[in-house]
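ok posting inputs for the S-adenosyl-L-homocysteine job
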Amino acid sequence: MSQKKANGKVIFVGAGPGDPELITVKGSRALENADRVIYAGSLVNPTLLKLCRPETPVHDSAHLTLEEVLALMDEGTRQGETIVRLHTGDPSMYGAVKEQFDHLDKESIPYTVIPGVSSVFAAAAAIKREFTLPDISQTLILTRMAGRTPVPEREALANLAKHQASMAIFLSVQDMGAVVEALLEGGYPAATPIAVIAKASWPDEEVLLGTLETIVEKVKVAGIRKQAQILVGDFLDPVNGYARSKLYDPTFTHEYRQGTEK
Ligand code: SAH
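and the output
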């Protein structure tokens, strides 16, 4: 095992949501210096690969099993390579990275993680919304519907919906009818605003705004079946307004500013 400690290493990089300018400076430097790149080709924008040296081998992990990805890492790092593993958005959300980390730990192969802009934030930016409005919600739930990958029962969408917090639902637009049903069952009123943002930050980004009553039809008409964020909650359209922030309230005193109120 000790020979495996050659100077190679793996850098997990969040590629961002699609727009190649939304990778971090640190992530783009890692790509420039990589000896080998393994990228999640189903969602990562291939334009980012142009940052690599022309001779750098690149592998699309969409065609590979975990074992094949790990074998590339083992072999490359043994030769002293710095390998970039490029994941869409931020690697910590549905990135299937833990199983890679565990293997690298076991083999004593060093690795680091460079975060990325998750599609959840690119989706909020696309529609110019803030998840955390005073008096409306101070919580954002990031989740998905159960599909071929199960979700623990206590986290079933209808259970989470009971909080009526702001919610971002990944990996679920193909089951839009079931998503809406679960949200209604959990207690969101039918008039609750909901948005579907497909391919946020890509040139062919699509935005649908509606309510729990109208969104299923809109998604159907638009033909959106994948790569979309579903955002739900009153933060999208606070009909009765929301309280302004304390932070910028002239009467409110905090660490950096004396307010007018004693
Ligand atoms: N790690 C990624 C998520 C990977 S799971 C991240 O942080 O964004 C894949 C899911 O992410 C898709 O099913 C979709 O729900 C969402 N997604 C990824 N890219 C997206 C984009 N550009 N626009 C909207 N949703 C996106």
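notes: The longest strand covers residues 9-14. The chain is about 25% helix and 20% strand.
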